């Protein structure tokens, strides 16, 4: 790669990272400055201020789902960050999942994406055996969309089932009622191990004063109905009340000081060393033109400790790179798509980013080895899919692909996925896409996720549209066809965007490539809280 190409790549990726930072800053304002001021006037901290106060000083909060709801529900003013903030952070040195309703966004009301995000947070806690802290401040279900959030298996009620399941699993849950807590949502804090409430600002009831008046004709104010005094001194529903947010959060920290320690998985870690090749060098290596090849090994060298990588079967199945390394001291097995064109011993040229039979066969064996040795797995995706055509089919590509998917799907060591570039079709699946339970999955700003590339999909969709028009007796001119192609391409490209994926929680977040090491390290630390089950690959095609 020439210096000119390197600089061009670097400029473009840095611009994408700048756009990411700008979006992050805007999204973190939630409902906006005015709504933030309203919270302060009530004597309340905002959700983000509560989290910042709660976590250990000089520690970081790894947010999950920042862009959930991005661009959605525009007809009702949007729902930034799905109206709830979720992520992992340290409290008194213990890593935990924190879930905090953002009252600046529609009073913390639950939209369909809010339920999905809460369930993702609980899923992470359950998979990794992390304690959960709920900071409750929500007006309940967003009624105009109740049919999309209330009755189904993956809707609002599933969180209470999860509360019960986590309790039976021995996962600690504590809750603080710091604002409204209404209707079915009232069960979340009360199904936790301990429930605190902030005096005068916190309230909890199955039905508010207006609904009580309408239902049974009783006149009563919300504070008398379900305030801190009522529930700490009369009903016994909550355990302790506190004069303000800070005192309540201090109490949570005091609880965490005394918790006993749980059994861990025991993943290997040594003193970390930085990569010999600087992580920022990734910016220049990643092509601005995604069709251009590049050497993924150079990216790996900028992610792993001392840039040291022990490659597995380096001379075989070369469109997938497999091997072991360390990231921030943690032992890790890496499966990565090689994006440069490679040549087999038989003289066959293989396209980068495509999974061939030999590569799938190699990856399956490597994944099984990592399970045998209790080494977590990292998948680095830049994949166009599996090889197609008569030669690939006759060579058993489906059989070998199934073998890789089987090994990956049954893997019991934790899996982590970073989508660096393309993530298309069955390649997304084989490289541990969202459907295959990665403990955490993140995308770079360069990621594209879809069943196929934009160009291929647009041409296919155009042909379907043109043929439909012709079958209806309509003729289409060349100019109309080009206009139609542009419309289809633009719409499909919007769906390819990593922000489109992040808004729907297909990924847990979009990250700066230079922060990949830090995020993977924290992810392995979280996964280390859950002992690994015995690995059984089941029946595989040989």
TrEMBL record:
Pfam families according to UniProt: Carboxyl_trans (PF01039)
InterPro entries listed in its UniProt record: AcCoA_carboxyl_beta, ClpP/crotonase-like_dom_sf, COA_CT_C, COA_CT_N, MCCB/AccD1-like
GO molecular function, one term: methylcrotonoyl-CoA carboxylase activity
Keywords: Membrane, Transmembrane, Transmembrane helix
Protein name: Acyl-CoA carboxylase subunit beta
Residue ranges of the TM segments: 168-190
GO-annotated biological processes: L-leucine catabolic process
Highest taxon listed in the record's lineage: Bacteria
GO cellular component term, pick one: methylcrotonoyl-CoA carboxylase complex
Alphabetical list of PANTHER family matching this protein: ACETYL, PROPIONYL, PYRUVATE, AND GLUTACONYL CARBOXYLASE-RELATED (PTHR22855), METHYLCROTONOYL-COA CARBOXYLASE BETA CHAIN, MITOCHONDRIAL (PTHR22855:SF13)
Domain CoA carboxyltransferase N-terminal: 13-271
Record domain CoA carboxyltransferase C-terminal: where: 274-534
């Amino acid at each position: 790669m020439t210096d000119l190409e390197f600089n061009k790549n670097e400029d473009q990726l840095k611009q994408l990272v700048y756009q990411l930072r700008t979006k992050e800053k805007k999204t973190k304002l939630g409902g906006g400055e005015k709504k933030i001021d309203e919270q302060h006037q009530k004597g309340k901290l905002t959700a983000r201020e509560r989290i910042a106060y709660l976590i250990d000083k000089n520690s970081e909060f790894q947010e999950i789902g920042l862009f959930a709801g991005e661009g959605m529900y525009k007809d009702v003013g949007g729902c930034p960050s799905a109206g709830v903030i979720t992520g992992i952070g340290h409290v008194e040195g213990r890593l935990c999942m924190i879930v905090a309703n953002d009252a600046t966004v529609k009073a913390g009301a639950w939209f369909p994406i809010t339920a999905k995000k809460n369930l993702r947070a609980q899923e992470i806690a359950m998979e990794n055996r992390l304690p959960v802290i709920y900071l409750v401040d929500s007006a309940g279900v967003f009624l105009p969309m109740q049919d999309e959030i209330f009755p189904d298996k993956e809707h609002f009620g599933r969180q209470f089932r999860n509360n019960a399941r986590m309790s039976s699993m021995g996962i600690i849950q504590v809750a603080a009622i710091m604002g409204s807590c209404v209707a079915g949502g009232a069960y979340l804090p009360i199904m936790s191990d301990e429930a605190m409430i902030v005096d005068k600002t916190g309230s909890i009831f199955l039905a508010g004063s207006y609904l009580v008046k309408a239902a049974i004709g009783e006149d009563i104010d919300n504070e008398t109905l379900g305030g801190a005094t009522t529930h700490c001194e009369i009903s016994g529903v909550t355990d302790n009340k506190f004069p303000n947010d800070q005192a309540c959060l201090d109490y949570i920290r005091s609880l965490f000081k005394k918790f006993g320690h749980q059994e861990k998985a025991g993943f290997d870690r040594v003193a970390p060393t930085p990569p010999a090749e600087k992580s920022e060098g990734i910016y220049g290596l990643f092509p601005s033109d995604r069709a251009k090849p590049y050497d993924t090994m150079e990216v790996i060298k900028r992610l792993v400790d001392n840039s040291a990588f022990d490659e597995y079967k380096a001379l075989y199945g070369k469109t997938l790179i497999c091997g072991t390394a360390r990231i921030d001291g943690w032992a890790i097995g890496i499966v990565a798509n090689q994006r440069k064109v490679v040549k087999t011993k038989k003289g066959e040229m293989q396209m980068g980013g495509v999974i061939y039979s030999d590569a799938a066969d190699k990856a399956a064996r490597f994944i099984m080895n990592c399970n045998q040795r209790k080494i977590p797995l990292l998948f680095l995706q830049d994949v166009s899919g599996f090889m197609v055509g008569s030669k690939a089919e006759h060579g058993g590509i489906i059989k070998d692909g199934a073998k890789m998917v089987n090994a990956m799907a049954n893997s019991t060591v934790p899996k982590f996925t970073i989508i660096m570039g393309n993530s298309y079709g069955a390649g997304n699946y084989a490289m541990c896409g969202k459907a295959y339970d990665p403990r955490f999955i993140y995308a770079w700003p360069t990621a594209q996720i879809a069943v196929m590339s934009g160009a291929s999909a647009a041409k296919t969709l155009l042909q379907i549209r043109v043929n439909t028009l012709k079958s209806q007796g309509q003729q289409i001119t060349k100019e109309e066809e080009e206009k139609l192609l542009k419309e289809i391409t633009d719409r499909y490209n919007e769906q390819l965007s990593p922000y489109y994926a992040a808004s729907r929680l297909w990924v847990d977040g979009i990250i700066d490539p230079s922060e990949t090491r830090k995020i993977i390290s924290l992810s392995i630390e979280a996964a280390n809280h859950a002992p690994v089950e015995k690995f059984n690959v089941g029946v595989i095609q040989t």
